[in-house]
Amino acid sequence: MTAFFKLSGCGNDFIALVEPAAAPTAAEIRAWCRRGVSLGADGVFTLRRLAGAVEMRYWNSDGGEAALCLNGTRCAARLALHLGWHRERVTVRTAAGDLQARLLDDGALAVEAPPPGRPRQLSLRTADGEFPGWQVDVGVPHFVCFGDAPVEDVPIERWAPPLRHHADLGSSGANVDFARAVGRHELALRSFERGIEGETLACGTGVLATAAAALVAGLASLPIRAHTRGGFPLDVLGHAAGAAVERWELAGEARLVAQGTLLPGAAESPTGASAGAPS
Strand pairing of 53-60 and 65-66? Predict the structure, then answer.
């Protein structure tokens, strides 16, 4: 049996293990994250106390470890505050570096984000046509496409997979974001995440990548409020150093939704060639 917390950051949901005796296996992660037959989540993270900080390791629902998940980092900070390890501010050590998180006056959590790489214009062709967009590295790679139509109308499950695996994005591919500027300080977007291989209700690095691309494209100015499928807004905050943005933050709600024990049945997966087939 495994003790867990369940957290959600603007619709991105996670299973958290606090100071486990051992890291979860890829098979356990895949099983626990399967919706409908187990607890279900976009990913799993572990949280450990350090001197003056906490350490977070993060895995996507496919069992693969990822260097960075910004919504996951915000949830890790929320959990550290809930456990009483820190008050109002906490340093979260991730594979992408140490990130500072702080509690805002409205109860939201803001986390420092690695400065995005310079967005690069790129046009990708698939069987569905030509997709002009922006390649952005925010600790993990993203491909951002802007359009004029409402993002709700984007057939993301058809368009995104060929882009996510496109050869021009490298052997590991990229996350894919479809976005629309709805105001000088507002964006709407939908994100298809690698490692989950599907659309998520929110993607923190996707919001950051889209904001960075929108700034370079002249479509928006900081601060930027992003509206995702989860229904909770995420804010991209920039702290200027002259004309440049010196420090980036991602802010939004992050909350604990459950605490309990994963029983052995949570790790069971279908077996046999006909598993999951309709009867």
Answer: antiparallel
Helix, strand, coil percentages (3-state) for the chain, rounded to 5, are 20, 45, 35
Tokens 């994250």 — which residue?
A: 33
Q: Are 179 and 189 in contact (CB under 8 A)?
A: yes
Give the architecture (CATH level 2) of 120-252.
Answer: Roll (3.10)
Q: What is the DSSP letter of 116?
A: P
H helix or E strand, kind and range, residue 76: helix 70-82
Contact 160, 200 (CB under 8 A): no
**Closest Cα to residue 60, out of 205, 161, 167, 168?**
205
Candidates 3.40.50.720, 3.20.20.100, 3.10.310.10, 3.40.50.300; CATH matching 2-108+255-267: 3.10.310.10
This prediction has a pTM of 0.90
13-68 pLDDT tens trace:
999 999 999 999 999 999 999 999 999 999 999 999 999 999 999 999 999 999 99
Name the segment(s) of the chain with CATH classification 3.10.310.10: 2-108+255-267, 120-252
Q: Which of 10, 33, 69, 145 is catalytic?
A: 69
Burial label, 195 (beta-carbon count in 10 A; 0-12, 13-18, 19+)? buried
| SS3 of residue 199 by DSSP | strand
75 is catalytic: no
Catalytic entry in 10, 75, 145, 203: 203
Phi/psi at 216 (5° precision): -65, -35
